[in-house]
Amino acid sequence: MSRLSAEFTDRTIEAHFSHHLLPQTKIQLRTTLLFCAAVYLVFAITDILALGLTPVALALFGCRIAVAVVALASCVTNHLHPHSVGRVYLTASITEIVGMLAFAPIVLARPDELPWHSMSMGLMVLVVYLYIPNRLVYALAIGVISTLVFIVMALLVGELSGKEQLTMVMLLSLANCFGYIAARRYSLIRREEFRVQSVLKNLSERDPLTGCHNRRYLQQELLNMELSRARRFRLSLAVVACDIDYFKSVNDTYGHAAGDRVLVEFAALLRGMIRENVDSLIRFGGEEFLLVLPETDLAGAMHLAERMRAALSAAVTEIAPGKTVGVTASFGVTSVNFASVVARFPQEAVIELADQLLYAAKHDGRNTVKALEFYGRPGLHVAARAAG
Ligand SMILES: Nc1nc2c(ncn2[C@@H]2O[C@H](COP(=O)(O)OP(=O)(O)OP(=O)(O)O)[C@@H](O)[C@H]2O)c(=O)[nH]1
Protein backbone atom coordinates (compact mmCIF):
# COMPACT_ATOMS: atom_id res chain seq x y z
CA MET A 1 0.00 0.00 0.00
CA SER A 2 1.15 3.52 -0.76
CA ARG A 3 2.20 5.36 2.44
CA LEU A 4 1.13 8.81 1.18
CA SER A 5 -2.20 8.10 -0.48
CA ALA A 6 -3.06 5.07 1.75
CA GLU A 7 -4.31 3.19 -1.31
CA PHE A 8 -3.32 -0.14 -2.86
CA THR A 9 -0.44 0.46 -5.27
CA ASP A 10 -2.01 -2.09 -7.62
CA ARG A 11 -4.77 -0.12 -9.40
CA THR A 12 -6.83 -3.25 -10.12
CA ILE A 13 -6.96 -4.19 -6.43
CA GLU A 14 -7.75 -0.59 -5.51
CA ALA A 15 -10.60 -0.54 -8.05
CA HIS A 16 -11.87 -3.84 -6.65
CA PHE A 17 -11.75 -2.42 -3.12
CA SER A 18 -13.56 0.79 -4.12
CA HIS A 19 -16.30 -1.14 -5.92
CA HIS A 20 -16.68 -3.47 -2.97
CA LEU A 21 -17.30 -0.47 -0.68
CA LEU A 22 -19.32 1.57 -3.18
CA PRO A 23 -22.82 1.02 -1.71
CA GLN A 24 -21.62 2.03 1.78
CA THR A 25 -19.57 4.95 0.44
CA LYS A 26 -22.56 6.34 -1.44
CA ILE A 27 -24.80 6.22 1.61
CA GLN A 28 -22.08 7.90 3.68
CA LEU A 29 -21.55 10.59 1.02
CA ARG A 30 -25.26 11.34 0.68
CA THR A 31 -25.81 11.60 4.44
CA THR A 32 -22.75 13.77 5.00
CA LEU A 33 -23.41 16.13 2.08
CA LEU A 34 -27.04 16.67 3.05
CA PHE A 35 -26.08 17.27 6.68
CA CYS A 36 -23.29 19.70 5.72
CA ALA A 37 -25.62 21.55 3.30
CA ALA A 38 -28.22 21.94 6.08
CA VAL A 39 -25.57 23.25 8.51
CA TYR A 40 -24.30 25.68 5.86
CA LEU A 41 -27.83 27.05 5.40
CA VAL A 42 -28.58 27.25 9.14
CA PHE A 43 -25.44 29.30 9.67
CA ALA A 44 -27.05 32.07 7.57
CA ILE A 45 -28.44 33.15 10.96
CA THR A 46 -24.94 34.31 11.91
CA ASP A 47 -24.77 36.49 8.76
CA ILE A 48 -28.10 38.10 9.61
CA LEU A 49 -27.08 38.64 13.25
CA ALA A 50 -23.81 40.23 12.12
CA LEU A 51 -25.06 42.25 9.14
CA GLY A 52 -28.82 42.55 9.61
CA LEU A 53 -31.22 41.90 6.75
CA THR A 54 -29.00 43.76 4.30
CA PRO A 55 -28.28 43.06 0.61
CA VAL A 56 -24.84 41.71 1.64
CA ALA A 57 -26.45 39.21 4.03
CA LEU A 58 -28.84 38.17 1.24
CA ALA A 59 -25.91 37.75 -1.18
CA LEU A 60 -24.17 35.54 1.37
CA PHE A 61 -27.39 33.55 1.68
CA GLY A 62 -27.20 33.10 -2.10
CA CYS A 63 -23.68 31.62 -1.68
CA ARG A 64 -24.95 29.26 0.99
CA ILE A 65 -27.83 28.18 -1.25
CA ALA A 66 -25.32 27.52 -4.04
CA VAL A 67 -23.42 25.11 -1.75
CA ALA A 68 -26.65 23.32 -0.83
CA VAL A 69 -27.65 23.05 -4.51
CA VAL A 70 -24.25 21.58 -5.47
CA ALA A 71 -24.50 19.08 -2.58
CA LEU A 72 -27.97 18.08 -3.72
CA ALA A 73 -26.85 17.80 -7.36
CA SER A 74 -24.00 15.55 -6.22
CA CYS A 75 -26.45 13.23 -4.45
CA VAL A 76 -28.70 13.10 -7.53
CA THR A 77 -25.74 12.43 -9.88
CA ASN A 78 -24.57 9.54 -7.73
CA HIS A 79 -28.10 8.18 -7.58
CA LEU A 80 -28.32 8.26 -11.39
CA HIS A 81 -24.93 6.53 -11.80
CA PRO A 82 -25.03 3.83 -9.15
CA HIS A 83 -21.89 1.98 -10.28
CA SER A 84 -19.43 4.83 -10.80
CA VAL A 85 -16.73 5.15 -8.15
CA GLY A 86 -15.04 8.00 -10.07
CA ARG A 87 -18.23 10.05 -9.96
CA VAL A 88 -18.43 9.66 -6.17
CA TYR A 89 -14.94 11.15 -5.78
CA LEU A 90 -15.60 13.83 -8.38
CA THR A 91 -18.87 15.02 -6.82
CA ALA A 92 -17.35 14.88 -3.32
CA SER A 93 -14.41 17.04 -4.48
CA ILE A 94 -16.61 19.54 -6.34
CA THR A 95 -18.87 19.99 -3.32
CA GLU A 96 -15.87 20.44 -1.03
CA ILE A 97 -14.33 23.04 -3.36
CA VAL A 98 -17.61 24.96 -3.73
CA GLY A 99 -18.08 24.86 0.06
CA MET A 100 -14.60 26.32 0.58
CA LEU A 101 -15.08 28.96 -2.16
CA ALA A 102 -18.42 30.05 -0.70
CA PHE A 103 -16.69 30.61 2.64
CA ALA A 104 -14.45 33.34 1.17
CA PRO A 105 -17.19 36.01 0.70
CA ILE A 106 -18.46 35.24 4.21
CA VAL A 107 -15.01 35.93 5.66
CA LEU A 108 -14.60 39.07 3.54
CA ALA A 109 -18.03 40.41 4.52
CA ARG A 110 -17.48 39.80 8.23
CA PRO A 111 -13.75 40.47 8.82
CA ASP A 112 -14.28 41.37 12.51
CA GLU A 113 -15.08 37.76 13.38
CA LEU A 114 -11.88 36.15 12.14
CA PRO A 115 -11.28 34.01 15.26
CA TRP A 116 -14.71 32.43 14.75
CA HIS A 117 -14.07 31.99 11.04
CA SER A 118 -10.76 30.27 11.84
CA MET A 119 -12.63 27.86 14.07
CA SER A 120 -15.18 27.18 11.30
CA MET A 121 -12.32 26.69 8.83
CA GLY A 122 -10.70 24.14 11.15
CA LEU A 123 -13.98 22.23 11.41
CA MET A 124 -14.50 22.34 7.63
CA VAL A 125 -11.01 20.96 7.08
CA LEU A 126 -11.73 18.07 9.46
CA VAL A 127 -15.00 17.37 7.64
CA VAL A 128 -13.08 17.26 4.33
CA TYR A 129 -10.53 14.77 5.68
CA LEU A 130 -12.74 12.59 7.84
CA TYR A 131 -16.43 12.75 7.00
CA ILE A 132 -16.88 13.30 3.28
CA PRO A 133 -15.73 10.07 1.58
CA ASN A 134 -13.08 10.97 -0.96
CA ARG A 135 -9.61 9.86 -2.06
CA LEU A 136 -7.14 10.92 0.59
CA VAL A 137 -4.92 12.75 -1.94
CA TYR A 138 -7.86 14.87 -3.12
CA ALA A 139 -8.87 15.65 0.48
CA LEU A 140 -5.24 16.58 1.23
CA ALA A 141 -5.02 18.92 -1.77
CA ILE A 142 -8.38 20.59 -1.01
CA GLY A 143 -7.62 20.85 2.74
CA VAL A 144 -4.13 22.34 2.33
CA ILE A 145 -4.92 24.75 -0.55
CA SER A 146 -8.09 26.11 1.07
CA THR A 147 -6.27 26.54 4.40
CA LEU A 148 -3.48 28.49 2.69
CA VAL A 149 -5.97 30.70 0.85
CA PHE A 150 -7.86 31.31 4.09
CA ILE A 151 -4.68 32.26 5.96
CA VAL A 152 -3.59 34.69 3.22
CA MET A 153 -7.08 36.25 3.22
CA ALA A 154 -7.11 36.50 7.02
CA LEU A 155 -3.70 38.17 7.05
CA LEU A 156 -4.80 40.65 4.38
CA VAL A 157 -8.25 41.66 5.60
CA GLY A 158 -8.19 40.85 9.33
CA GLU A 159 -6.94 42.97 12.13
CA LEU A 160 -5.42 40.22 14.21
CA SER A 161 -2.43 40.83 16.45
CA GLY A 162 0.79 38.97 15.66
CA LYS A 163 0.07 36.55 18.54
CA GLU A 164 -3.43 35.83 17.21
CA GLN A 165 -2.16 35.34 13.69
CA LEU A 166 0.39 32.81 14.92
CA THR A 167 -2.25 30.96 16.94
CA MET A 168 -4.57 30.84 13.91
CA VAL A 169 -1.83 29.48 11.63
CA MET A 170 -0.80 26.87 14.19
CA LEU A 171 -4.35 25.71 14.88
CA LEU A 172 -5.23 25.40 11.19
CA SER A 173 -1.96 23.56 10.47
CA LEU A 174 -2.79 21.16 13.31
CA ALA A 175 -6.32 20.62 11.94
CA ASN A 176 -4.75 19.60 8.61
CA CYS A 177 -2.13 17.36 10.25
CA PHE A 178 -4.57 15.58 12.56
CA GLY A 179 -7.19 15.33 9.82
CA TYR A 180 -4.71 13.81 7.38
CA ILE A 181 -3.17 11.41 9.92
CA ALA A 182 -6.56 10.16 11.14
CA ALA A 183 -7.95 9.79 7.60
CA ARG A 184 -4.82 7.97 6.48
CA ARG A 185 -4.94 5.60 9.45
CA TYR A 186 -8.62 4.87 8.81
CA SER A 187 -7.95 4.32 5.11
CA LEU A 188 -5.09 1.89 5.80
CA ILE A 189 -7.11 -0.07 8.38
CA ARG A 190 -10.04 -0.50 5.98
CA ARG A 191 -7.75 -1.72 3.21
CA GLU A 192 -5.96 -4.10 5.55
CA GLU A 193 -9.35 -5.54 6.62
CA PHE A 194 -10.29 -5.96 2.96
CA ARG A 195 -6.96 -7.68 2.23
CA VAL A 196 -7.40 -10.13 5.13
CA GLN A 197 -11.00 -10.84 4.08
CA SER A 198 -9.88 -11.49 0.51
CA VAL A 199 -7.10 -13.83 1.65
CA LEU A 200 -9.53 -15.77 3.86
CA LYS A 201 -12.12 -15.92 1.06
CA ASN A 202 -9.46 -17.15 -1.33
CA LEU A 203 -8.30 -19.79 1.14
CA SER A 204 -11.83 -21.05 1.66
CA GLU A 205 -12.70 -21.06 -2.07
CA ARG A 206 -9.52 -22.22 -3.78
CA ASP A 207 -7.39 -25.32 -3.97
CA PRO A 208 -3.91 -24.40 -2.72
CA LEU A 209 -2.04 -26.73 -5.13
CA THR A 210 -3.55 -25.68 -8.47
CA GLY A 211 -5.17 -22.33 -7.59
CA CYS A 212 -8.48 -23.60 -9.05
CA HIS A 213 -11.79 -23.06 -7.28
CA ASN A 214 -12.62 -25.90 -4.91
CA ARG A 215 -15.64 -28.16 -4.61
CA ARG A 216 -17.08 -26.13 -1.74
CA TYR A 217 -17.19 -22.98 -3.85
CA LEU A 218 -18.76 -24.93 -6.72
CA GLN A 219 -21.52 -26.41 -4.59
CA GLN A 220 -22.20 -23.47 -2.30
CA GLU A 221 -21.98 -20.60 -4.76
CA LEU A 222 -20.93 -21.06 -8.36
CA LEU A 223 -23.22 -23.73 -9.75
CA ASN A 224 -26.33 -22.36 -8.11
CA MET A 225 -25.52 -18.87 -9.37
CA GLU A 226 -24.80 -20.02 -12.94
CA LEU A 227 -27.87 -22.28 -13.09
CA SER A 228 -30.12 -19.45 -11.85
CA ARG A 229 -28.65 -17.03 -14.37
CA ALA A 230 -29.02 -19.50 -17.25
CA ARG A 231 -32.62 -20.25 -16.18
CA ARG A 232 -33.52 -16.55 -15.90
CA PHE A 233 -32.17 -15.67 -19.35
CA ARG A 234 -33.09 -19.04 -20.94
CA LEU A 235 -29.49 -19.85 -21.87
CA SER A 236 -27.44 -23.04 -22.17
CA LEU A 237 -24.98 -24.08 -19.50
CA ALA A 238 -22.41 -26.84 -19.95
CA VAL A 239 -20.53 -28.83 -17.33
CA VAL A 240 -17.46 -30.89 -18.21
CA ALA A 241 -15.92 -33.43 -15.81
CA CYS A 242 -12.36 -34.55 -16.57
CA ASP A 243 -10.02 -36.92 -14.84
CA ILE A 244 -6.41 -37.87 -15.54
CA ASP A 245 -6.05 -41.50 -16.66
CA TYR A 246 -4.01 -43.93 -14.55
CA PHE A 247 -2.86 -41.11 -12.33
CA LYS A 248 -2.09 -43.53 -9.51
CA SER A 249 0.66 -45.05 -11.63
CA VAL A 250 2.26 -41.56 -12.08
CA ASN A 251 2.43 -41.24 -8.29
CA ASP A 252 3.63 -44.82 -7.86
CA THR A 253 6.28 -44.59 -10.57
CA TYR A 254 7.62 -41.04 -10.17
CA GLY A 255 6.56 -40.07 -6.65
CA HIS A 256 3.93 -37.78 -5.16
CA ALA A 257 5.83 -34.55 -5.97
CA ALA A 258 5.91 -35.49 -9.66
CA GLY A 259 2.17 -36.27 -9.44
CA ASP A 260 1.59 -32.80 -7.99
CA ARG A 261 3.56 -31.26 -10.85
CA VAL A 262 1.39 -33.12 -13.38
CA LEU A 263 -1.77 -31.87 -11.62
CA VAL A 264 -0.53 -28.27 -11.70
CA GLU A 265 0.34 -28.50 -15.41
CA PHE A 266 -2.98 -30.18 -16.21
CA ALA A 267 -4.89 -27.39 -14.45
CA ALA A 268 -2.81 -24.76 -16.26
CA LEU A 269 -3.54 -26.38 -19.62
CA LEU A 270 -7.29 -26.44 -18.95
CA ARG A 271 -7.25 -22.87 -17.62
CA GLY A 272 -5.42 -21.66 -20.71
CA MET A 273 -8.18 -22.98 -22.95
CA ILE A 274 -11.24 -21.49 -21.22
CA ARG A 275 -12.67 -17.97 -21.39
CA GLU A 276 -11.19 -15.74 -18.70
CA ASN A 277 -13.77 -14.38 -16.22
CA VAL A 278 -16.55 -16.35 -17.94
CA ASP A 279 -15.80 -20.06 -17.54
CA SER A 280 -14.75 -21.64 -14.25
CA LEU A 281 -12.31 -24.41 -13.45
CA ILE A 282 -12.86 -26.38 -10.28
CA ARG A 283 -10.70 -29.05 -8.70
CA PHE A 284 -13.48 -31.45 -7.81
CA GLY A 285 -11.24 -33.83 -5.88
CA GLY A 286 -7.97 -35.75 -6.33
CA GLU A 287 -7.16 -35.71 -10.04
CA GLU A 288 -10.70 -34.85 -11.15
CA PHE A 289 -11.55 -31.35 -12.43
CA LEU A 290 -14.82 -29.77 -13.44
CA LEU A 291 -15.46 -26.99 -15.95
CA VAL A 292 -18.55 -24.81 -15.75
CA LEU A 293 -19.18 -23.12 -19.11
CA PRO A 294 -21.96 -20.50 -19.20
CA GLU A 295 -23.80 -19.85 -22.49
CA THR A 296 -22.34 -23.00 -24.03
CA ASP A 297 -24.34 -25.74 -25.75
CA LEU A 298 -23.45 -29.42 -25.96
CA ALA A 299 -21.68 -29.15 -29.32
CA GLY A 300 -19.51 -26.25 -28.10
CA ALA A 301 -18.61 -28.04 -24.86
CA MET A 302 -17.81 -31.29 -26.71
CA HIS A 303 -15.60 -29.40 -29.12
CA LEU A 304 -13.72 -27.77 -26.24
CA ALA A 305 -13.34 -31.10 -24.38
CA GLU A 306 -12.01 -32.74 -27.52
CA ARG A 307 -9.46 -29.94 -27.99
CA MET A 308 -8.40 -30.31 -24.36
CA ARG A 309 -8.09 -34.09 -24.67
CA ALA A 310 -5.93 -33.76 -27.80
CA ALA A 311 -3.77 -30.98 -26.29
CA LEU A 312 -3.15 -33.02 -23.14
CA SER A 313 -2.22 -36.21 -24.96
CA ALA A 314 0.29 -34.19 -27.04
CA ALA A 315 1.82 -32.44 -24.00
CA VAL A 316 4.44 -33.62 -21.52
CA THR A 317 5.29 -32.42 -18.01
CA GLU A 318 8.88 -31.96 -16.90
CA ILE A 319 9.01 -33.61 -13.48
CA ALA A 320 12.79 -33.31 -13.08
CA PRO A 321 15.53 -31.76 -15.25
CA GLY A 322 15.45 -33.70 -18.51
CA LYS A 323 12.77 -36.09 -17.26
CA THR A 324 9.25 -35.80 -18.66
CA VAL A 325 5.98 -37.64 -18.24
CA GLY A 326 2.92 -37.63 -20.48
CA VAL A 327 -0.64 -38.35 -19.40
CA THR A 328 -4.07 -38.51 -20.99
CA ALA A 329 -7.49 -37.69 -19.56
CA SER A 330 -11.10 -38.77 -19.97
CA PHE A 331 -13.99 -36.30 -20.28
CA GLY A 332 -17.71 -36.39 -19.45
CA VAL A 333 -19.65 -33.52 -21.06
CA THR A 334 -23.22 -32.41 -20.44
CA SER A 335 -25.23 -29.28 -21.09
CA VAL A 336 -28.66 -28.03 -20.19
CA ASN A 337 -30.57 -25.66 -22.45
CA PHE A 338 -32.98 -23.56 -20.44
CA ALA A 339 -34.75 -22.38 -23.60
CA SER A 340 -36.43 -25.81 -23.58
CA VAL A 341 -35.89 -27.10 -20.04
CA VAL A 342 -38.43 -25.70 -17.60
CA ALA A 343 -38.36 -28.32 -14.84
CA ARG A 344 -36.51 -27.53 -11.63
CA PHE A 345 -33.87 -30.05 -10.61
CA PRO A 346 -31.25 -30.25 -7.89
CA GLN A 347 -27.91 -28.77 -8.99
CA GLU A 348 -26.16 -32.07 -8.14
CA ALA A 349 -28.08 -33.75 -11.01
CA VAL A 350 -25.94 -32.00 -13.67
CA ILE A 351 -22.69 -32.88 -11.89
CA GLU A 352 -23.84 -36.48 -11.43
CA LEU A 353 -24.53 -36.83 -15.14
CA ALA A 354 -21.14 -35.34 -16.10
CA ASP A 355 -19.54 -37.73 -13.61
CA GLN A 356 -21.40 -40.77 -15.00
CA LEU A 357 -20.28 -39.81 -18.51
CA LEU A 358 -16.71 -39.45 -17.28
CA TYR A 359 -16.77 -42.99 -15.90
CA ALA A 360 -18.35 -44.22 -19.13
CA ALA A 361 -15.36 -42.68 -20.93
CA LYS A 362 -13.03 -44.50 -18.52
CA HIS A 363 -14.83 -47.78 -19.23
CA ASP A 364 -14.55 -47.14 -22.94
CA GLY A 365 -10.78 -47.27 -22.79
CA ARG A 366 -9.96 -43.74 -21.43
CA ASN A 367 -8.47 -40.75 -23.37
CA THR A 368 -11.92 -40.08 -24.79
CA VAL A 369 -14.92 -37.73 -24.56
CA LYS A 370 -18.50 -38.83 -23.76
CA ALA A 371 -21.39 -36.38 -24.02
CA LEU A 372 -25.13 -36.28 -23.33
CA GLU A 373 -27.59 -33.44 -23.21
CA PHE A 374 -29.35 -32.97 -19.91
CA TYR A 375 -33.02 -32.05 -19.88
CA GLY A 376 -35.95 -32.13 -17.47
CA ARG A 377 -39.61 -32.94 -17.84
CA PRO A 378 -42.55 -31.32 -16.03
CA GLY A 379 -43.11 -32.71 -12.57
CA LEU A 380 -39.45 -32.73 -11.59
CA HIS A 381 -38.71 -35.75 -13.74
CA VAL A 382 -35.15 -35.37 -14.89
CA ALA A 383 -33.67 -37.31 -17.74
CA ALA A 384 -30.80 -37.20 -20.15
CA ARG A 385 -30.66 -37.97 -23.85
CA ALA A 386 -27.85 -38.23 -26.28
CA ALA A 387 -26.91 -35.16 -28.29
CA GLY A 388 -27.83 -34.95 -31.93
N1 LIG B 1 0.30 -36.37 -6.27
C1 LIG B 1 -0.99 -36.28 -5.93
N2 LIG B 1 -1.76 -37.36 -6.04
C2 LIG B 1 -3.05 -37.28 -5.69
C3 LIG B 1 -3.61 -36.07 -5.21
N3 LIG B 1 -4.93 -36.29 -4.95
C4 LIG B 1 -5.18 -37.57 -5.27
N4 LIG B 1 -4.06 -38.17 -5.72
C5 LIG B 1 -3.84 -39.55 -6.17
O1 LIG B 1 -4.58 -39.79 -7.35
C6 LIG B 1 -4.68 -41.19 -7.47
C7 LIG B 1 -6.05 -41.54 -8.03
O2 LIG B 1 -6.04 -42.90 -8.35
P1 LIG B 1 -7.29 -43.66 -8.87
O3 LIG B 1 -8.53 -43.09 -8.25
O4 LIG B 1 -7.03 -45.11 -8.68
O5 LIG B 1 -7.39 -43.29 -10.38
P2 LIG B 1 -6.36 -43.48 -11.60
O6 LIG B 1 -5.12 -44.17 -11.20
O7 LIG B 1 -6.21 -42.12 -12.19
O8 LIG B 1 -7.16 -44.37 -12.55
P3 LIG B 1 -8.36 -43.98 -13.49
O9 LIG B 1 -8.96 -42.71 -12.95
O10 LIG B 1 -9.32 -45.10 -13.39
O11 LIG B 1 -7.80 -43.79 -14.85
C8 LIG B 1 -4.42 -41.80 -6.11
O12 LIG B 1 -3.17 -42.44 -6.11
C9 LIG B 1 -4.38 -40.58 -5.20
O13 LIG B 1 -3.45 -40.76 -4.12
C10 LIG B 1 -2.74 -34.95 -5.08
O14 LIG B 1 -3.13 -33.85 -4.66
N5 LIG B 1 -1.45 -35.10 -5.44
From TrEMBL:
<feature type="transmembrane region" description="Helical">
    <location>
        <begin position="88"/>
        <end position="108"/>
    </location>
</feature>
<dbReference type="GO" id="GO:0043709">
    <property type="term" value="P:cell adhesion involved in single-species biofilm formation"/>
</dbReference>
<dbReference type="InterPro" id="IPR000160">
    <property type="entry name" value="GGDEF_dom"/>
</dbReference>
<feature type="transmembrane region" description="Helical">
    <location>
        <begin position="166"/>
        <end position="183"/>
    </location>
</feature>
<feature type="transmembrane region" description="Helical">
    <location>
        <begin position="57"/>
        <end position="76"/>
    </location>
</feature>
<dbReference type="GO" id="GO:0052621">
    <property type="term" value="F:diguanylate cyclase activity"/>
</dbReference>
<dbReference type="Pfam" id="PF00990">
    <property type="entry name" value="GGDEF"/>
</dbReference>
<feature type="transmembrane region" description="Helical">
    <location>
        <begin position="139"/>
        <end position="160"/>
    </location>
</feature>
<keyword id="KW-1133">Transmembrane helix</keyword>
<feature type="transmembrane region" description="Helical">
    <location>
        <begin position="114"/>
        <end position="132"/>
    </location>
</feature>
<keyword id="KW-0812">Transmembrane</keyword>
<dbReference type="GO" id="GO:0005886">
    <property type="term" value="C:plasma membrane"/>
</dbReference>
<feature type="domain" description="GGDEF">
    <location>
        <begin position="235"/>
        <end position="374"/>
    </location>
</feature>
<keyword id="KW-0472">Membrane</keyword>
<dbReference type="InterPro" id="IPR050469">
    <property type="entry name" value="Diguanylate_Cyclase"/>
</dbReference>
<feature type="transmembrane region" description="Helical">
    <location>
        <begin position="32"/>
        <end position="51"/>
    </location>
</feature>
<dbReference type="InterPro" id="IPR029787">
    <property type="entry name" value="Nucleotide_cyclase"/>
</dbReference>
<protein>
    <recommendedName>
        <fullName>diguanylate cyclase</fullName>
        <ecNumber>2.7.7.65</ecNumber>
    </recommendedName>
</protein>
<dbReference type="InterPro" id="IPR043128">
    <property type="entry name" value="Rev_trsase/Diguanyl_cyclase"/>
</dbReference>
<dbReference type="GO" id="GO:1902201">
    <property type="term" value="P:negative regulation of bacterial-type flagellum-dependent cell motility"/>
</dbReference>
